[in-house]
Each structure stands twice: as C-alpha cells, then as structure tokens.
Amino acid sequence: MPSVHRGNFPNRQTQFSARRQKIMQQKKSLPIASVEKRLVKEVRKNDVLIIVGETGSGKTTQIPQFLLDAGLCRDGRVIGITQPRRVAAVTVAKRVAEECGVELGQKVGYSVRFDDTTSGSTRIKYMTDGLLLREALLDPYLSKYSVIIVDEAHERTVHTDVLMGLLKKVQLARSSSVTDGQSGRFHKMPRHEKYAPLKLIIMSASLDARAFSEYFGGAKAVHIQGRQFPVDIFYTRIAETDYLDASLITIFQIHLEEGPGDILVFLTGQEEIESVERLINEKLPQLPQENQKLLIVPIFAALPSEQQMRVFAPAPSGFRKVILATNIAETSVTIPGIKYVIDPGFVKARSYDPGKGMESLIIVPTSKSQALQRSGRAGREGPGKCFRLYPEKEFDKLEDSTMPEIKRCNLSNVILQLKALGVDDILGFDFIEKPSRAAITKSLEELFLLGALTDECLLSDPVGHQMARLPLDPIYSKALILASEFNCLEEMLITVALLSVESIFYTPRDKLEEARTATKCFSSPEGDHITLINVYRACNDFLEKRSMEMGIAKTEKVFRKWCKENYINSRSLRHARDIHKQIKGHVEQMGLNLSSCGDDMLQFRRCLAASFFLNAAVKQPEGTYRALASGQVVQIHPSSVLFRKKPECVIFNELVQTNNKYVRNLTRVDYLWLTELAPQYYAMQN
DNA sequence: GAGCACTGC
C-alpha cells in the first residue's frame, strides 16, 4: 500500500475502542438495562425465577453478566446458560466475551459437542442443553454451577424438558433446608455442606409463563419488554384449498402492490419449495419487463451450506428477494431484510406411533405461538406485514402451542439416560408434560430386549451402564458392545457413525445419472452397511495419501473436492468423522476390544444380525417384505443398494412411512442367524 | 423406481 494512504486509516487501537464504545452504547440501550437491579434482587430472593422476554430484549446476553457482577460466581463457581442449538451457544458466547472485553474461553466461554472453549477461569458458560445433560452423568449434583439458566424453554425440546425435570431434583438435593428421601439417587448420597444451593432461571419467549410457573411450585415470573417493530397481520376471507397456489398469488400481489422489502415464505419441505420455485419462474416472464426483478432463494437444512449462504447476500439493485424456506427460518436462521412474511399455516412435524414403533413425518397446522413466531420475522428491522393464508376464525381454532417433542418421539434414549441418572421410576418421574404410558412402556420393553435393563427394570451391569455412556441411539451403542465380541468393532464404529448422520449421498435431481455412476464403485452386493464402510474408507485412504504432502488447511480443501467429485455430502461425512472420533475415544476408555474382521464380512454381517435383530424383515411371495417384530408389510426404499436384489431376509435401521412404508439402510442376512443369535426373542415370536 | 421439518449428545 502506498505510504501516503496509510494516514487515512484508523489504527487498530482506535478501531478497537470505537467498536467497544459502540458495543457499550448498544448494551445500554437494551430494554433490559433499566431493570438490572430489580432482576438481581429477584434472583437473590427466589430459588426459581421465570423470565419472559420477547425477542430483542437482550436477556440471553445481559442477565449472565448482571449475575456475575452481582457476585453470584463467588468461590469459583459458574453460571451455566443452556441453548437448544449449537450456533446460538457459540455466537452468544462470542458476543458476550466481546462485551466483557475478554478473550473467549477465559471468563466467558462455550461448550458444545466437539467444541469446548471453556477453561478453569470460565465463569459464564454457554452450552447446549444436551451437553449439560451429559455433564450430569459425570457430576450428578452439577456442583460447579451456582446458577443454571435454561434459555428458550418455550421451544420444549426433549433435552430442555428432561433437563428441567432433572434440575428440579438437583435443586432439591442441594438445598440444605429440605430433608426428604424422595429425590431419586440423591437420597443414597449423604447431603454435604459443600453443595451450596442452586439457583434456577427459566427463560422463555412465549407470553404464557403459567405452565413453567406451576411446574416449579408457583415460581415468580417477571416480564421484560422486547424490541420488536409492529407487524400488521392479514388473513384471507375464505379458506384456501391449495396453499401453494395461494402462496404464489400472494407473492406476486406483494411484489406488484407493496413497497420495497424482501419476502419470506414458510413451506413444509424441499419438494414444495422446489415446486413453488418452478411455478414462479414459469409465471415471471408473463409480467411486464420492469416487474420481472424477483430473485428466488430456497433454504432448507439438507441444502449444501454454500447454497444456504445465498439467503444472506443482498439482492442485486432493483431486485426483490423471495426466500422460500422451511422451519429452518423460524428459529435457526435469521435472515436480514425481511419485511413481508407469507404463512400458509402448515408445518411438517414428526409423529410417533408407539404401537407400531414407527416414526413418520406428517403435515399439520401450525400452533398459535408458531404463527406468532413466523410473523415476528417481518418486524426485526422495521414495521412489517404478515399474510396468513387462512381466515381469522381458523387462527382461533389453532392449538396455543406446539405439542412438546417428548410426546412425539421414541423415548428409549431419554429413558436410558434417566436410568443412568438414578431415576428408576420413569412412570413416576416429574415430567413437565408426561409422555403417554404406551410410549414409555414400549421403550422400556425395547431397552429390556437390548439387554440394557434387568428383569426388575434396573440398568444392567455392565451393558446398560456402558450403553448410557455412549452418545448414540441405544441400539447403536449395543451394536458396538456386541461388535467387540464379534471382533469387528472397527467396522461397526464406522457404521454407527454414518448411520447417526443425515444421508451422506448427495443426489441433485438434475445430475441423477452422474451421481449414480460416481457412487456405484462403493456399493456392496451385501447391502448398505458395507457400502457405507466402503465410502468412509475410500475417503480415509485418499486423505491419508494426500496429507503426507500437505498441511491441515489444504487437506480440508482436498476433502471437500473429493466429496464433490464423488457426490458425497461433505457436511454429513465430516459430521460422521467427528462422531467416529468421539465414540472411538469412549469405547477405548471403556476397554472394548478395538479389532477388525478384515475381509471377513460374513462375521460383520452376523454381528449386524445380532445387533439389529429387532429390525428384521423377510420377503413375501409378492416381493414385499414383512417386518418380523411388528408384522407390518414394508418395501425396500429405492435408495438402497438392495432395491433390485430382493434378498430373502434382511435387517434394517429405519422404517419410515411416506407414500408407502419403506425400510432403509439394509443388509442381507440369513434367517437362521436370527434364531441362533437372538434365540430368546425368536423363540418368543414362534 | 422415492422423496426425508428441525435440533442435539
């Protein structure tokens, strides 16, 4: 740079202090700043406090700082703040470290799976709720925390719900004034002076704090004002029969009649998004030339991240951006520039049928709070408008809030963790909302069949305890334990890592043939599990050969290139590699026998049969399959390498209901292996 | 010959 220009740039020191000044100003202007004293007083006075704070109140970043300044971290103890999502934990921690003027990982840090920045001097610790649950397995009293703040509690994720039940117990066990023998495992341990009382703060964005307050014995609730711009809500006069068509019309109506500002449309899935995108692009040329400046940007979780990033780029000058999004834009991703929201009122949600042991995704109406959350996305930067594509009287009929996830999912993992935490009576556990008896019984039964529970329904030793230690689906944890006996733990580690992530195969519709040719060289005639291992090892071999020649940064680039060339989703494969590394560490610590079966894939397939005997299916004369455990008639999913082969007997990992009932991720096995390797179960069946 | 909202350990 020519030296004459140098004087025109502020030096780093001035830049730094200018930024700090701006941060301090922003901090002071937050609605929460004026109630610091009152909040601290309430926290001191109440063991449990519910804080209702609307979007933009600053509760997540400010309250931990208030409490630290007020001296709640004395004796080296920590304020823990849980978040349902990793990104939130990471970004908020970075922001707060900056506000405090400290290096991340010192006074302020975060800890999420695969990424822990905390140190001995960390006093404000942001983390995911699932991680705190794991910590409780090692430290049942959560003894290093003086305060635990559960943020975004209104989202009611499984982890948040279990955590609240657990924290209630921990608080009771740590309070010196209470003497009871009803607090699960805690009564087995002597109450000790070193466990100072634990303060709990439950933070929620939903206006209704009643459920939380009642759950915590009538806990005090305080409200904090948010900073949200007004959003006008519009309804249709009559019910729409086709909400995709209605969305399309509304997009064009806004585009032609309303002022500048981007549009966010909430659709239920990839297919709908792609079809609306196609329809817009078909209609666009029919508009007058000057009205054709619309930029369509899709976003959903399965989209490769480079394409996801397109939503953050501003539209070219004169263009209006239309974002077609799934629920990802409701909470996980905040998109700037949105002034108009179109909400057809539907969402794709998971549901679980304990009778059939089957999860499925179904399209259902949103709840009121979800509709509110969606409309709020139009008022982040200025006043906005939200178009709900249903009549107002339909809104009144919606459920107030979405059914908590814990009532819609398989509970095996939850129950295994609770058992490991010393909660033996699952039906009697104080859930904020109790799952159905049928769902609890079904999962208890499954855990029993996997050998995790004894006849008395207690955690078995060592199998049950080992399974609970592994952060995996219980059936995969069991597979690892068995694999060490079958001498194929190396193969099984790769398999369960890959089964734990989204599909690693990336097949864009327009390049179907190329993708197929690319992945063909990995496929095994025995089934999908060995095919997955082949991909994983091919990638490893490639990287090993290359990494001798280059550094880490370059390896990363080469990794992405390899994935792209082979039509592999690099995000999924990286995730699987992280899981593989983490679980490998766990099984080594547990002293399992880390051996390989080499080329003896028969041995590995026998191990698969022994592990997944609950998920076996046999071919029927018509060519369909019968799942042995539930008796359901299923088909092989077309993505399987066994789709055409149709072997007599298979084990599978997933049974999903879409247009048909499909099984996915399968391997060919011998029916006789099942009766040999799981005789208790197959004798019972016959 | 299909189609998979979103998180998380």
UniProtKB/TrEMBL annotation:
Nucleotide-binding as UniProt keyword: yes
A GO MF term: ATP binding
Listed Gene3D superfamilies: 1.20.120.1080, P-loop containing nucleotide triphosphate hydrolases
Domain of life of the organism encoding this protein: Eukaryota
Keyword terms, alphabetized: ATP-binding, Helicase, Hydrolase, mRNA processing, mRNA splicing, Nucleotide-binding, Spliceosome
CDD domains: DEXHc_DHX33 (cd17978), SF2_C_RHA (cd18791)
GO cellular component terms, A-Z: nucleolus; spliceosomal complex
Pfam families linked to this entry: DEAD, HA2_C, Helicase_C, OB_NTP_bind, WHD_HA2
Helicase C-terminal domain sequence ranges: 248-422
A GO biological-process term: positive regulation of transcription by RNA polymerase I
EC number(s) stated in the UniProt entry for this protein: 3.6.4.13
Helicase ATP-binding domain mapped to chain residues: 40-225
Reactions the enzyme catalyzes: ATP + H2O = ADP + phosphate + H(+)
Matching PROSITE patterns: DEAH_ATP_HELICASE, HELICASE_ATP_BIND_1, HELICASE_CTER
Secreted as UniProt keyword: no
Enzyme class of the recorded protein, top EC level: hydrolase
Listed PANTHER family: ATP-DEPENDENT RNA HELICASE, ATP-DEPENDENT RNA HELICASE DHX33
Protein name (Swiss-Prot/TrEMBL): RNA helicase
Organism per entry: Vigna angularis var. angularis
